[in-house]
Design a protein that fits this description.
mainly alpha, two-stranded antiparallel ribbon, 57% helix
Length: 121
């Protein structure tokens, strides 16, 4: 019987990458001030997480592709096929954050003059 430690190369570094994602992803507005200028940096970070790299860390898309290749190898060698749940959650969070920042962008572009004079007592 083989030890599971022999197959550690089949496990990508998902946990450290997901921790980095949770630490670095734009979950908040810097300074707490919702302005259109805050949206552009958030989009840049989201795009880097999706397509490029952030601070030397691979994109979520690249890690997902690597995990798919590793799942094929796990299947080939009849190993337990990992579902990489943390990686799936990061991918979902990335989509949710994109939707959230789309909403923030739309709200930041709306003129607030439509609310003036409509307060009811």
């Amino acid at each position: 019987m083989f030890s599971c430690l022999c197959f550690l190369p089949f496990n990508p570094p998902v946990t450290p990458e997901s921790r980095f994602f949770l630490k670095r992803a734009p979950f908040t507005v810097s300074g707490g001030d919702l302005r259109l200028e805050a949206v552009r940096p958030a989009y840049a970070v989201l795009d880097a997480f999706h397509h490029g790299s952030v601070d030397g860390h691979a994109s979520v898309t690249a890690i997902i592709e690597e995990s798919r290749q590793l799942q094929e190898l796990q299947d080939l060698f009849e190993l337990y096929i990992s579902d990489y749940l943390m990686l799936q959650r990061c991918s979902e969070e990335l989509l949710y954050l994109k939707s959230l920042w789309d909403t923030v962008s739309a709200a930041a572009q709306l003129p607030c003059t439509c609310w003036q004079g409509q307060a009811r007592s």
